[in-house]
Design a protein that fits this description.
The complex is a heterodimer of chains A (304) and B (418).
Chain A lengths: L1 H14 L2 H36 L2 E2 L7 E2 L3 H4 L5 H31 L7 H9 L6 H11 L7 H7 L13 H29 L3 H9 L4 H29 L3 H7 L10 H10 L4 H26 L1
Antiparallel strand pairs in A: 1-2
Helix pairs in contact in A: 1-2, 4-8, 4-10, 5-8, 6-11, 8-10, 8-11, 10-13, 12-13
Chain B lengths: L1 H22 L10 E7 L3 H14 L3 E7 L1 H13 L6 E5 L3 H6 L7 H5 L9 H6 L1 E2 L2 E2 L2 E13 H6 L11 H15 L15 H14 L17 H15 L26 E5 L12 E4 L1 E3 L2 E4 L2 E8 L6 H11 L2 H8 L21 H9 L11 H6 L4 H10 L6 H12 L2
Helix pairs in contact in B: 8-10, 9-10, 15-16
Classes of the chains: A mainly alpha (304), B alpha+beta (418).
């Protein structure tokens, strides 16, 4: 909407009478105002507040006390956060690679219109309709060694002989969480890639085929290059989502066992709501935000 | 410029409209007042009974909100930050020192002084609700850790069903006997504990330390003594039980929400349990109750439960106090709490017309004076938080490398002193 208004504003500037020009411009501001207010109140104001909080000792009740840059300098000596950064990066790398591969595979499977393909598209996408917190709780119940149905099923089929410690060891906890994330998000990412795949003109494929290209060549020389913008979007969504991971670890593994699955946002949450160090938590949030913006800028440049 | 002013006015109007909604309702009203109260799910039953009885007999009404136990502390923090605390809120008694130091509760010293039974209020709860000589909370519920034993399983295993364990070593022997005789099908286990739950460890293991004459922290709650022999002896006994498979395989992963769920199913021989669950056990289940003992004897308990105070931001302090003082009155304590086999918040009412009906309740009431409630300003972040240092120490001591206890104990002290 803003674009249209700017255009008409420019047209007006070239020849229309000043009174009308002013009226239209005011009208434009009026149209933009609701969005501006929402962005201002729900995004800019909290952002400024978090920035200000990170420079203060901020108690739950009572006046704040300026203490910059203490909240920032103490981050380096917070071993939980340093470990969480490394863990979150590792989790992001594994999740993004696996998620892209699975989503692309699914998208290629259901790409062409064939009988029954609608069923599979729906089936793959359906887990995305479950709330993420609910999905995490669902996995917690399903994989629970005491009452979950998965272990008895695996044992009845002779695949395992005793209950699997799904979240009992650091590696298994990470593995189970990644399974959860794949189940929940592969379908959604498949949908994104599917729109990209269907935007590739059929003529390009036909031309390639008539030139004698085989399936692999078509995939690597046609599909992947033309899918690049869509892949970039999916990558950015996946990387940002993974770096901000919270629900799956908070609900499913609770950061355990032995702090092996503590993500960065969990540390922010712990500092704010268990240690009541609101200033410190705000500083961690600012650092996280700067890191995310930096990384996304880098990715946009590389993937463009 | 005028345009900017217009936008600013619009923004301001939106803000005013958004904030104005709840403001008017907070004014103290003439006539009956409805006050709001929060409590955590762990002690929901007791709070609901008290509120129900009060609402039936009083003009003022209390609206109770129950919040999942794991989310309670974050919810209080978020509400306090937004100045949206309810008129009254209960809290796990061990978190109270932190809340009072953050200024979340209203000073009610002068109001408490007018209560005729002020000297009989549960001493450990009152101690933790006092900061710099000023009092902020009243005891709300008392939840003591005790050992429950399943008399049927004792009998089947050839043990005397009327004799519970008198030492921690005896508990280990009983549990092992039950596991060996009845545990072959993988359903029944000798004992159980919450092995991935910091709060469970302090509630169930520390009384054995106190019973043996040891301590877990200094008086000020700033130095951890969890690397000393009194504690490591207790860890060693539980470690032995886990190693032998007496505890059931899931003890190591138990995060807390379900640790009390196995005993009522008749699957556990003997284990530490919260006293508040006694009234919730299946009616036909024969359960013995014993005080928690040290490795070689003694008796103690963790006097847990909730305290309740008026929030610092309330506009209904008088109405809130009226309810609060009623909850510790003779009427509420005897006819609501004692009638439902709950531990009383007042020591002068321990002998009442209901207590004699169940000797187990008498035993639990008598433990209030023998038990302890540890004081530390940084209790929650040190001992309850799953990312805190205590859980790591306890897990290394019971399942991992016990040699790391010394180093991890230093981290606990560091966390206590933050």
């Amino acid at each position: 909407m803003t674009l249209t208004i700017t255009k008409s504003g420019r047209q007006a500037a070239r020849g229309a009478p000043p009174a009308r020009w002013r009226g239209r411009k005011a009208q434009g501001w009026l149209y933009a105002a609701p969005t501006a207010v929402i962005v201002g109140v729900l995004f800019l104001a909290p952002l400024v507040l978090v920035g200000w909080m990170s420079l203060n000792r901020w108690p739950l009740l009572g006046p704040a006390a300026f203490n910059a840059p203490d909240n920032y300098t103490k981050i380096a000596s917070n071993p939980l956060f340093v470990d969480a950064v490394l863990f979150t990066l590792k989790y992001t790398a594994i999740t993004t690679v696996l998620l892209s591969a699975v989503a692309l595979g699914l998208a290629l499977l259901v790409q062409e219109r064939r009988p029954g393909v609608g069923f599979f598209r729906t089936a793959f996408f359906l887990p995305g309709a479950v709330g993420f917190a609910a999905a995490a709780l669902l996995f917690y119940g399903m994989l629970n060694p005491d009452f979950g149905p998965v272990d008895p099923m695996l044992q009845a089929l002779g695949i395992t002989s005793e209950p699997v410690k799904w979240i009992g060891t650091p590696n298994m906890a990470l593995f189970s969480t990644i399974m959860l994330v794949l189940w929940r998000f592969a379908g959604f990412n498949m949908l994104i890639l599917l729109t990209g795949l269907q935007a590739i003109p059929v003529e390009v494929y036909e031309a390639a085929r008539s030139d004698g290209a085989n399936r692999w060549q078509i995939f690597t020389r046609i599909t992947l290059p033309l899918l690049r913008p869509t892949l970039a979007l999916m990558l950015i969504l996946s990387v940002t989502g993974s770096l901000l991971a919270f629900d799956q670890f908070f609900i499913f593994t609770n950061g355990g066992p032995d702090n092996s699955t503590v993500s960065m946002v969990m540390v922010v949450y712990r500092d704010a709501f268990f240690r009541f160090d609101l200033g410190g938590a705000a500083a961690l949030s600012v650092v996280l935000l700067v890191g995310l913006v930096g990384l996304n800028t880098l990715m946009m440049r590389r993937l463009r | 410029m005028r345009r900017l002013a217009g936008i600013a006015t619009l923004a301001l109007l939106t803000l005013t409209a958004a904030c104005g909604g709840g403001g008017g309702a907070q004014e103290p009203a003439e006539g009956p007042v409805t006050i709001t109260m929060w409590t955590r799910a762990a002690t929901q039953a007791q709070s609901e009974r008290l509120v129900e009885a009060y609402n039936k007999s009083h003009k003022n009404q209390v609206k109770l909100t129950v919040i999942p136990t794991d989310n309670y502390q974050p919810r209080i923090a978020a509400a306090a930050g937004a100045k949206q605390l309810p008129d009254l809120f209960a809290a796990d008694v061990i978190f109270v020192p932190n809340y009072t130091s953050q200024g979340l509760y209203l000073d009610v010293t002068d109001r408490i002084a007018t209560l005729p039974y002020k000297d009989s209020l549960a001493p450990s709860h009152m101690r933790l609700g006092t900061l710099d000589g000023r009092q902020y909370t009243l005891p709300h519920t008392l939840d003591l850790s005790v050992w429950f034993w399943n008399k049927d399983l004792y009998e089947k295993a050839g043990l005397d069903p009327e004799q519970g364990p008198k030492t921690l070593k005896e508990l280990a022997e009983h549990a092992t006997a039950i596991d060996e005789k009845l545990g072959k099908d993988g359903k029944v286990h000798g004992t159980f504990f919450g092995g991935n739950c910091g709060g469970c460890y302090v509630f169930t293991f520390w009384p054995s330390v106190w019973a043996a004459g040891g301590q877990v922290m200094d008086e000020q709650g700033t130095t951890s003594l969890n690397d000393q022999k009194a504690m490591t002896d207790v860890f060693a006994i539980w470690r032995g039980l886990y190693d032998k498979g007496v505890t059931g395989p899931t003890a190591k992963e138990e995060q807390g929400p379900t640790w009390t769920g196995f005993f009522p199913k008749g699957e556990i021989g003997v284990m530490p349990m919260p006293s508040t669950t006694l009234g919730l056990m299946p009616a036909d289940m024969k359960i013995g109750v014993a005080p928690i003992a040290g490795p070689d004897g003694g008796e103690s308990t963790f006097v847990g439960g909730d305290s309740v105070g008026v929030s610092a931001t309330t506009k209904n302090a008088d109405a809130a106090w009226e309810f609060l003082s009623w909850t510790v009155s003779d009427e509420a304590q005897v006819e609501v709490m004692a009638k439902n086999k709950d531990v009383l918040a007042r020591t002068d009412l321990a002998e009442n017309k209901y207590s004699a009906e169940d000797p187990r309740v008498v035993l639990i009431n008598s433990l209030v004076a023998k038990g302890q409630t540890p004081y530390a300003l940084r209790f929650g972040q040190t001992y309850n938080d799953p990312q805190g240092p205590w859980l790591r120490l306890a897990r290394e001591a019971v399942f991992g490398d016990a040699a790391k206890v010394g180093e991890l104990n230093a981290q606990i002290t560091k966390s206590l002193q933050q």
